[in-house]
Q: What sequence folds into this?
């Protein structure tokens, strides 16, 4: 299998140099960009498997880059932000980021997030077809498609994996920490907000009836099974 292709977008040379060294050490094919315009061009030409994208960029900022990318691609995006405010993280996730890291971050943590995401993405591409069928919701894990009452639902990579994980554990409450480990592939680092935002996206697409919030505990998938 060819090495995964990573696009790293940041205008701070120290971050680019350090992160690049760690990512190249893992054998990834790496392309870098320092502003929003070149990031969009690189994404279209280089066609990366994963993008590490800073919010604060000259010219077109990272959120606008992400918004434009989402009109044409579901490439996995890890957002970098120097801001610690919760609203900034939520905005990034709402625009379409799959995950985020707050600066300053450990390059080892970045590599761990990248490895985890690519392991899932490449595993998904090899997955054989199988299905989860409930009274209203149907999920095909091979084609990675979902339906509600026979109406197709468009889900991002993370949304599909999150829905599948909850559905595979129908009736059980999964904590945010468990979902981080199962879906994003890393242990709890205080980033549970990423789970809440993506669950909210799924509810908007499926309807409010299928994922229940259990206060203080987590989330539960509640569609009825089919005999």
A:
């Amino acid at each position: 299998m060819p090495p995964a292709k990573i696009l790293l977008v940041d205008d701070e040379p120290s971050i680019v140099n350090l992160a690049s060294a760690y990512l190249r050490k893992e054998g990834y094919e790496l392309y870098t960009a320092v502003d929003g315009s070149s990031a969009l061009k690189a994404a279209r030409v280089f066609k990366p498997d994963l993008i590490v994208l800073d919010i604060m960029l000259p010219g077109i900022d990272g959120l606008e880059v992400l918004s434009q990318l989402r009109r044409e691609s579901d490439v996995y995006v890890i957002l970098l932000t120097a801001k610690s405010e919760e609203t900034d993280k939520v905005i990034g996730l709402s625009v379409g980021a799959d995950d985020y890291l707050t600066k300053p971050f450990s390059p080892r943590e970045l590599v761990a997030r990248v490895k985890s995401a690519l392991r899932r993405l490449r595993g998904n591409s090899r997955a054989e077809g199988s299905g989860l069928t409930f009274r209203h919701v149907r999920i095909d894990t091979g084609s990675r498609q979902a339906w509600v009452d026979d109406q197709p639902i468009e889900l991002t990579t993370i949304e599909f994996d999150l829905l599948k994980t909850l559905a595979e554990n129908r009736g059980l409450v999964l904590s945010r920490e468990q979902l981080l480990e199962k879906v994003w592939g890393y242990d709890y680092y205080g980033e549970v907000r990423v789970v809440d935002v993506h669950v909210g996206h799924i509810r908007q697409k499926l309807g409010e009836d299928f994922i229940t919030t259990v206060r203080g505990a987590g989330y539960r998938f509640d569609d009825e099974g089919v005999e």
User: Anything to note?
Assistant: Residues 107-125 form the longest helix (19 residues). Helices lie at 13-25, 36-46, 62-70, 86-95, 107-125, 157-168, 176-184, 193-206. The first strand starts at residue 5 and ends at 9.
